[in-house]
Design brief:
globular, six-stranded mixed β-sheet, 2 domains, alpha/beta, Rossmann fold
C-alpha cells in the first residue's frame, strides 16, 4: 500500500456515496486524495463506477452523500453558476471522443477557448502547437469524419489540454486505438504529468498499466484503495462484471 505525501490536495473524496435512481449504489463510502503532480491509473472491473467517479470530479454528477472537494470547493454545496469556472481547470478526455463532425481538427481543439470568448489570435499558435505535439500537424484542417480512431483520440487529448488545465481526467483513452497508438497516447500523458499536471486515467487494460509502472487507484465494491505499480504477472485485463 502506498501513502500520499503531505501537500495541498486538489481532489478529496470523504465517505462518498453515489446512488442512481435511489436504488443502484455505485460508490459506497469512497475515500481518496489526489495531490498536485500525481499520476494515477483508476482501475476496476467494467461497470465498477470508474466513469461515474470521474464525473463526480468534474461536477457532471454530485454525490448522494459525503464530500467531494475539488480545488478547495465542496461540490455538494457549490452553486451551479460557479461550476463552469471550476471545470475550466479540468481537461477531460472522453471515451467516445465527443468531437463535432462539422468542425475541423483545429476547430475542435480550439472550441473550449472559443466558448470562453477568448480572442482567436491569442490561442491559434497554441492549438497548432498542440496538434503538432500529438502528431497531427498534417491533419489540422481535417474533419473527424476522415480521421482514424487513433487520430480522433489525439484530437480529443489536444482539446483537453488547450486551456492549460491543472487536472486531466482521461476515460479509457486507449480503448479505441491499437496497442502502439495506445502506448503513444500514454507517453504523451506521462510527459504532461512530468510538466506538472495532475492526471487520472481510467482503464481496465492492466497490460498497459503494468508496463508504465505508475500508482493505482483500485475501485472495487464501491470503494477506492491506493496501490503501487502492479506486478508483471498480473493478467492483462480486468475481469468483467460490476463488482
Amino acid at each position: 500500500m502506498v501513502t500520499d505525501q503531505n501537500s495541498q490536495a486538489i481532489v478529496t473524496f470523504e465517505d462518498v456515496h453515489l446512488t442512481y435512481d435511489g436504488v443502484r449504489e455505485v460508490l459506497r463510502g469512497t475515500d481518496f486524495t489526489l495531490r498536485p503532480g500525481d499520476f494515477r491509473f483508476l482501475t476496476g472491473p467494467s461497470g465498477a463506477g470508474k466513469t461515474s467517479l470521474l464525473k463526480l470530479i468534474y461536477a457532471a454528477h454530485r454525490p448522494t452523500t459525503g464530500r467531494v472537494e475539488v480545488f478547495g470547493n465542496d461540490l455538494l454545496d457549490m452553486p451551479s453558476e460557479e461550476m463552469p469556472k471550476l471545470r475550466r481547470r479540468i481537461g477531460v478526455v472522453f471515451q467516445e471522443f465527443r468531437l463535432l463532425d462539422h468542425l475541423t481538427a483545429f476547430e475542435n481543439v480550439a472550441l473550449p477557448m472559443r466558448v470562453l470568448g477568448v480572442n482567436p489570435n491569442s490561442y491559434r499558435d497554441d492549438v497548432i502547437e498542440l496538434l503538432s505535439w500529438v502528431g497531427l500537424a498534417h491533419r489540422i484542417d481535417a474533419p473527424p469524419t476522415v480521421l482514424s480512431g487513433g487520430e480522433k483520440q489525439r484530437v480529443a487529448l489536444a482539446r483537453a489540454l488547450v486551456s492549460k488545465p491543472d487536472l486531466i481526467l482521461a476515460d479509457e483513452p486507449t480503448g479505441n486505438v491499437d496497442p502502439v497508438m495506445g502506448e503513444k497516447i500514454m507517453r504523451l500523458l506521462l510527459e504532461l504529468n512530468r510538466l506538472g499536471t495532475a492526471i487520472i486515467v481510467a482503464t481496465h487494460d492492466l497490460g498497459l498499466v503494468r508496463g508504465l509502472k505508475q500508482n493505482i487507484l483500485r475501485l472495487k465494491d464501491g470503494k477506492v484503495t491506493l496501490h503501487g505499480p502492479i506486478p508483471d504477472e498480473t493478467p492483462a485485463r480486468e475481469p468483467e462484471g460490476a463488482q
